[in-house]
From TrEMBL:
InterPro entries: Asp/Glu/hydantoin_racemase, Asp/Glu_race, Asp/Glu_racemase_AS_1, Asp/Glu_racemase_AS_2, Glu_race. Substrate binds at D10, S11, Y42, G43, N74, T75, T183, H184. One of its GO terms (molecular function) is glutamate racemase activity. HAMAP family: Glu_racemase. The keyword Cell wall biogenesis/degradation applies. Keywords: Cell shape, Cell wall biogenesis/degradation, Isomerase, Peptidoglycan synthesis. The keyword Ribonucleoprotein does not apply. Pfam families: Asp_Glu_race. This is Glutamate racemase. The lineage of its organism: Bacteria, Bacillati, Cyanobacteriota, Cyanophyceae, Oscillatoriophycideae. It comes from the Bacteria. It catalyses: L-glutamate = D-glutamate.
Length: 276
């Protein structure tokens, strides 16, 4: 099993932040990446929908030769992780607990930016205050961020204005630490850092979930020492769109396959123009 792949999934390109950390921290591991692009964004979905999607993805991954799965999606981690862990016979790691541990080690006044579903679940608040009840936590749901990132509008002036609006209530609370509560959000780091005071430290849970994965592989004796196979990229939506969007974060255009999972009709998408 040591040479089996690590499965990584997200609703779209957000999980590439986890993939980059896997390349950095676990360079010998082979990776299977799945982006559920036909059904993004996840942050507006119900728990029942998220649970259905996660089960479909994990069932598909289970026959692809994987030894571990990382949910590179905070919404899935918040709403489905504890339920599905007992349903599959391989380790499944989420991003919330590693991110919470890192945040507690950095500050006492912690802000969390997340999708509406993750924010509404209070998963980060619960995880952080379970570790240290004296830490104060404020959360903000950021519904526009994932669509803006997936549409490659990171450098759009509108994105900067939206970010200022989302961060304002957290800055009013004089936070000392900000958690990127969605794996898409590190892509916005230049925008967010331009708004945040220099004293505010940021937490990218991708870094810490991969460190947790490395530790788990060592404990189970499943870390690969052989050269890795090329990463396999799969999506449920349009492969070319994902490939093009990935170039700026991977440094190359990946070969992307389309995988036809049982896909329900997507939610009615709100045009971004209506958000402006």
């Amino acid at each position: 099993m040591t040479t089996d792949k690590i499965g990584v999934f997200d609703s779209g390109v957000g999980g590439l932040t986890v993939l980059r950390e896997l390349y950095r921290q676990l360079p010998n591991e082979s990776i299977l990446y799945f982006g559920d692009t036909a059904r993004l964004p996840y942050g507006n979905r119900t728990q029942a929908e998220i649970l259905q999607f996660v089960r479909e993805i994990l069932n598909w991954m289970s026959v692809q030769g994987i030894k571990m799965v990382i949910m590179a999606c905070n919404t899935s981690s918040a709403l489905a992780l504890e339920i599905v862990r007992s349903e599959f016979n391989f380790p499944i790691l989420g991003v919330i607990l590693p991110g919470a541990r890192a945040a507690v080690s950095m500050g006492k006044r912690i802000g969390v930016i997340a999708t509406p579903a993750t924010a509404a679940s209070s998963a980060y608040r619960h995880a952080i205050q379970e570790i240290d009840p004296n830490v104060q936590v404020w959360q903000v749901g950021c519904p526009a961020f994932v669509p803006l990132i997936e549409q490659n509008r990171i450098n759009d002036p509108y994105t900067y204005e939206v970010a200022k609006e989302y961060l304002a209530p957290l800055l009013e609370q004089q936070i000392d630490t900000l958690v990127y509560g969605c794996t898409h959000y590190p892509h916005l780091a230049p925008v967010l850092r331009a708004i945040l005071p220099r004293s505010v430290r940021t937490v990218d849970p991708a870094v810490h979930v991969v460190a947790a994965a490395a530790q788990e592989l060592d404990i189970l004796g499943m870390r690969s020492m052989a050269p890795p196979q090329p990463t396999r990229f799969c999506v449920s939506g349009e492969p070319n769109q994902f490939a093009q969007l990935s170039v700026q974060w991977l440094g190359c255009r990946p070969l992307v396959e389309q995988v036809c999972l049982p896909v329900s009709v997507p939610l009615q998408q709100v045009p971004l123009e209506s958000l402006e």
